[in-house]
Design a protein that fits this description.
By secondary structure, the protein is an alpha/beta fold. The chain has 3 domains: 5-52 and 179-327, Rossmann fold; 74-145, Rossmann fold (3-Layer(aba) Sandwich), CATH 3.40.50; 331-507, 3-Layer(aba) Sandwich (Biosynthetic Threonine Deaminase, domain 3). The protein has 20 helices and 18 strands. The strands form 3 sheets. An 8-stranded antiparallel beta sheet has the order 14-11-13-12-16-17-15-18. A hairpin with a 5-residue loop joins strand 12 and strand 13 (371-379). Helix 1 (5-14) packs across helix 9 (186-198), helix 9 runs parallel beside helix 11 and helix 12 packs across helix 14. The longest helix has 17 residues, at 155-171.
Length: 511
Amino acid sequence: MARSELDYLVHILRAPVYNAAIMTDVSVMQRLSDEIDNKVFLKREDQQPVKSFKLRGAYNCIAQLSDELKATGVIAASAGNHAQGVAYAAKAMNINASIVMPETTPEIKVDAVKKFGGNNVEVILHGTSFDQASEHANALCETRELTMIPPFDHEDVIAGQGTIGKELLEQISHIDYLFLAVGGGGLAAGVGVYVKKINPDIRIVAVESDESACLKAALEAGRPVTLPNVGIFADGVAVKTMGAEAFRVCQRVVDEVVTVTNDEICAAIKDIFDDTRVIAEPAGALSIAAMRKYAKQHKLTNKHFAGILCGANINFHTLRYVSERCELGEQKEAVFAVRIPEQRGSFRNFCAQLEGAIITEFNYRYSSSDEAHVFVGVKLKRGRAELYELLQKLADNGYTCFDLSENELAKLHVRHMVGGRPASRLSERLYSFSFPEYPGALMQFLNTLGQKWNITLFHYRNHGAAQGLVLAGFEVDDSKHLLLLDYLEELGFDFEEQSDNPAYQFFLANA
């Protein structure tokens, strides 16, 4: 028989999670609150011993087992936060646990599970995907007569996560909108059922990555469905099929579902860092990712928003991607492509059209005798409207432009691949430059460089550092090489010839 909302309420109140988990803090995100004109509260589940909320559900699920089942041991399949939660809970209750993880799991995660579980946990590496690891765990569960601890689709797991809702209503006197991340649905179901039972006036907004929106798909179909594929950037919510029980509960307590892009998730990670100095994992930032867009779409002001920082177990190398994409997610940067005539001075003339806009990136490579293609990034102060005005101005002046700000292929790959080898033979020399960075510095650099020499390659990326760095190619015969050197010396910039650099010779120079 399906558990009622009242049953869940009682189960949540009785959940013994505090034998292992802690009551986490709520932070006011003042900077973001000021920016979106709504008060933003953030529940800090990154403070848990395993740096995520998963400990609550795992511990409650194991705690409900009989002494006989505990003595036999438990098993779980996970490559992330659930594995660490089960390991920590098993050690806290001094029972044995087997945790199956894919062989491709980063070593840092495997080591974390071993550290949290100690001698109580056996880590088994099997297969190259979570599905293969899960299948093996199910087989071991039968042959060893263990108890499976699922990551989300279990009443006891859902109730354990629901203790977050209990704490939220004790810590925040008033909430208008509660944003809950959804992967398998255990968190949204547990927190949602408690909050709605205590205060039905709170609007619950489920938040999914647009690359793994299994709740949205399930609501449209009226039942859980399996997505053909999911994105892995927000790996903590990369679930193809949400739980049946989690869906049943979410169907009753969730008011609406919104999806967010990877760029919006990156912007949310930055928002959380700016206000708390904590680096959230992508799945952990989902609730914050929705707030900026939601407030703007619904024209909300002076409301109280609450969200949960679900976890902070981020792969350090992911930060490169986050840094690259966060300002696109905040609509504080845009990227576009433009065609310019391939003639002396056209590159500088195009930059003059930008009229003091802060350029964040400039990729250019000579392609033919008629035209060149340029990849441009610009800072935005007024969001997308400012970009549209700029593109219209360029169009009015005869330039063909293409907005690439929503083009995933362009942002992920093409921006780093613009150019290649020239289509025709060039007598080219390559130089790297550095100059003091400030608004308008690139234009000043180009003005100083002048139009005496034909530029055949150009790359600039504003990294927010004290020095601007440019890589530029010049068309120059050997007979005029010394003249070019004298000219560059007179400009006063720090520069170094890179014509013999093997990376240039391999990828960009004439064959």
